[in-house]
Amino acid sequence: MPPRGAGIRITALSCTHGSVRAVADVDLEVEADTRVALVGTNGSGKSTLLRAVLGLHRDTGGTIAVDGHVARTGRDWTRRRRECAWIPQRQSPGSFPLLVRELLDGPGGHPAARDAARDLGVGTLLERPVSTLSGGQFQRVHLARIAGSVADGARVVLADEPTAALDFEARAEARSYLLGLGVTVLVVTHDPDLAAACDRRLEMAAGSLREVA
Amino acid sequence: MNDLETLTALLTMPAVQRAALGLFLGAVGLPLVGVIIVGLDIMPVRFAMMHVALLGIAVGLLTGLDPTLCALVACALAGAAVSPLADRPGGLSGGMGLLMSLAMAAALLLIAVSGVNAASAFALLWGSILSVRTVDLVILGVLAVIVPVLFVAFRRHLALLLHDRELALVSGVPVRLFTIVLLVIVAVAVAGAIRLTGALLVDALTILPALAARRLGASLTSIAVWAVAFGLMSATGGFALALLLDLPPGPVLVLTAGVITVAVHLIPERKRSWHHIEAVSTHSH
Predict the structure, then answer these.
(1) What digits encode the pLDDT tens for the residues B70-119?
(2) Which of A45, A150, B100, B117 would be a feasible disulfide site paired with B48, CB 3.0-4.6 Å?
(3) What is the pLDDT of residues A157-174, one digit of tens each?
(4) β partners of residue A35
(5) Per-residue pLDDT band at B67 (split at 50, 70, 90)
(6) Closest residue in chain B to residue A139, using alpha carbons only
(7) What is the pTM assigned to this prediction?
């Protein structure tokens, strides 16, 4: 059976925030359908690495290929963002409200997102503005959103601390949902159980990456 | 003659009728433009565009072309030109300051060198509702149709973009194209409203209804509906008051819109208000 996910190859990736080097000459190869946990202390460059894959971090050097393609043009980046679903770390302060329904059904959305929202216990929150959700509800809604993205053809999930605000029971549920999506997963986490359940565990420290398990 | 009879008599005058029609058309399209301005957090853009409009007016007076149309074209071009700045971390604010200064300097230089009557250039900036012409009504009419149609057609994209630019980007919204189109619409709307309320009072029909609506609406759609409702209330109430009290309509319109905005902000916030809980939820993570 061919893999559903896409492989990622990162070569000599460097990212800077002004004069601070957040990611330093990182090389990483992730095979399709592999679930990889990125662990490490706050500020070690994990989130920046995920954002660089999506082209959200501008000051980068090196190359990032997803399914063998390096994004260079605007069209390449559009394709990359369709291929890679993203769970952000925290809510945007957003100057305008966005309803949960609008997030799930919006551009890049898929009916499967609503099914996932029901499964994850947030199906009744459709008319709530996203900014009124608790941290745990927010993360489950985004998990539902990326389930829709995967149903729509996304082959990689980039998740930034997707279980950080969840209670013990909800963490287990979200963990199994995330890792059961059947695509490549690159997840930044401080949750030891989530990290242990992944196929590979990598630690970032001061912008450098090393394999832990 | 009582107030109603006075008002009815005034409304039989062609100039007053045109002004009322202009205000109605403006109150449909311009509050939605205000929603975009507030949502994108680009308040300084309208100040910059007012200065660019002055440059356009000066060019129009110098060349003999229609000053309002020249202002419209100048603003549209400036709106498109500054849109790449929206991608920068500093956003549009710094660029707007530069644009404002350059446009004003160029306008003053043009006025001085060409011998154009400076007073007539500046007079257009103050606006004159009762001198609204057919071309102004056409511009406002086009805005009153195009802006709501675009708003409805792209509301899902706009909702994401106005909530979170990065989330919109990763969700496949063509953020750069949208930003250019929105800035051009904002610029054209500011220029188009010049004769109606005057560039300096354009807030009456753009920002103020949007600020009041943001307080009451819980989604982009409800905010848009409230904004148009407040726009129509301000335009109708302000114009009627100005006619009855024989006062200049522009300032009365702004004051009416301002009173409505303040009154709305005095209403106690609902428990489920999106901006109220936002402040709480960020601490509970």
Answers:
(1) 888 888 888 888 877 766 656 666 777 788 888 888 888 888 887 777 77
(2) B100
(3) 999 998 887 888 888 888
(4) A185
(5) confident
(6) B285
(7) 0.82
SS3 A4: coil
Q: Is the dihedral of CA B25, B26, B27, B31 positive or negative?
A: positive
Does the beta-carbon distance from A96 to B172 stay under 8 Å?
A: no
- Return the pLDDT at A94: 65
For residue B217, list chain A residues with Cβ-Cβ distance below 8 A: 97
- CA dihedral defined by A46, A48, A50, A56, rounded to 10 degrees? 170
Query: Which residues, other chains included, contact A89 with Cβ-Cβ below 8 Å and sequence gap of 6+?
Result: A47, A160, A161, A164, A188
The rounded distance, in Å, linking the Cα atoms of A145 and A14 is 30
Whether the CB-CB separation of B260 and B233 falls below 8 Å is answered with yes
Q: Which amino acid is at B284?
A: S
Q: Which residue in A86, A106, A108 is closest to B159 by CB distance?
A: A106
- Contacts A59 to B, Cβ<8 Å: none
Cα-Cα end-to-end distance for chain A: 26
Q: How many helices (H) and strands (E) does chain B have?
A: 15, 0
Residue written as token pair 């990032």: A64
* Structural domains of chain B, ranges and CATH numbers in brackets: 3-276 (1.10.3470.10)
Structure-block tokens of residue A59: 């000051």
Burial of A62 (0-12, 13-18, 19+ CB in 10 A): middle
Q: How far apart are CA A112 and CA A211, in angstroms?
A: 34
CATH superfamily of A8-211: P-loop containing nucleotide triphosphate hydrolases (3.40.50.300)
B85 vs A181: CA distance, rounded Å = 38
B207 touches chain A (CB under 8 A): no
Contact across the interface for A96 and B156, Cβ inside 8 Å: no
CB contacts of B214 in chain A (<8 Å) are 96
A69-70/A60-66 β-pairing: antiparallel
Pairing of strands A156-160, A208-211: unpaired
Instruction: Identify the three-state secondary structure at position A54.
Output: coil
Torsion of CA B186, B191, B196, B197, to 10 degrees: 70
Measure in Å the smallest separation between the Cα of B109 and chain A Cα atoms.
39
CB contact under 8 Å between B220 and A106, yes or no, is no
Sequential DSSP letters for A147-205: HHHHHTT--EEEEESTTTT--HHHHHHHHHHHHTS-SEEEEE---HHHHHHSSEEEEEE
Nearest beta carbon to residue A132 from set B41, B173, B274: B274
Q: Rounded to whole angstroms, how far apart are CA atoms A157 and A178?
A: 9
